[in-house]
Amino acid sequence: xxxxxxENIKQNFQIHYYFDDNSHPMNAFVRxxxxxxxxxxxxxxGNILDIKIKLESQAREEGGLxxxxxxxxxxxxxxxxxxxxxxxxxxxxxxxxxxxNADLKLKDLEFKLKELDLKLKEEELKNKKSQNEYIxxxxxxxxxxxxxxxxxxxxxxxxxxxxxxYQINNSNELIIEREQFKSFIIEENKDTEIxxxxxxxxxxxxxxxGKYKWKGIYNGEKIDFSMGDSGFKxxxxxxxxxxxxxxxxxxxxxxxxxxxxxxxxxxxxxxVKKVYGIKINDISKIxxxxxxxxxxxxxxxxxxxxxxxxxxxx
Length: 314
Hints:
Shape: elongated
Number of strands: 12
Coiled coil: 99-141
Transmembrane segments: 69-93
Oligomer: single chain
Keywords: Coiled coil, Membrane, Transmembrane, Transmembrane helix
Distance between the termini: 55 Å
Structural class: alpha+beta
Strand content: 25-35%
Helix content: 25-40%
């Protein structure tokens, strides 16, 4: 393995708070609270990439107020992680709707992660992860949005701040105006995700009327869930389905997550909205919702008059 791969990588990150009165001081309690949220955010980026990050503060500069943070990436293969860390930090801090102006589209991030994956294969490192795994971790990370929300909420509440600038390693400063702060703030403490094609192995069905929870296994984890498909629920109560060990349902699953102020998940609720099919002893049965969905898929694949006209023209 090349020696330089094992060296620690130093990144200089600057946050520039622009004040509306051209002054330089900031309330110490407010600044410390904001800094805590921001450092937690950077640590979470390290968690996404499974790398260790060490943070140090430099002397502050005037010109509004400039916070200088030194980010040390500690461990191996860091020469390839550094660009990805830069892009991820900017990706979150500036918001997806401003990526075009910042020239930091998600494709750039995917390219960096692909480049990283190729380097990992060349070095034959253990526990390597593909680019798709990193991208999936980024897309599915709920905590990081909460941490950013906490940071921007404090920034917005401090009325003296009119905009924020971000700069990495003397690159061009990226500006977020005050009116954009709200787009980063999450008012609700709950997120809802819809999984269209979820498979749940049934441990314990509900065979009587009432608001009882079903038990099953989803993605290798035991879950309790409510049954929102009344048609399927009634069919089960009427014993139209015989549940045995290994019985699986294919369904539309709603996952509701509740978070605390630190972005930590405190509660997860599962609800099956529609059951598309049930598999018993390797025999699959499709439900009314499943038949409707299959028909919609088939219709979407059928050629239109425009398609025929196009084929004739060609």
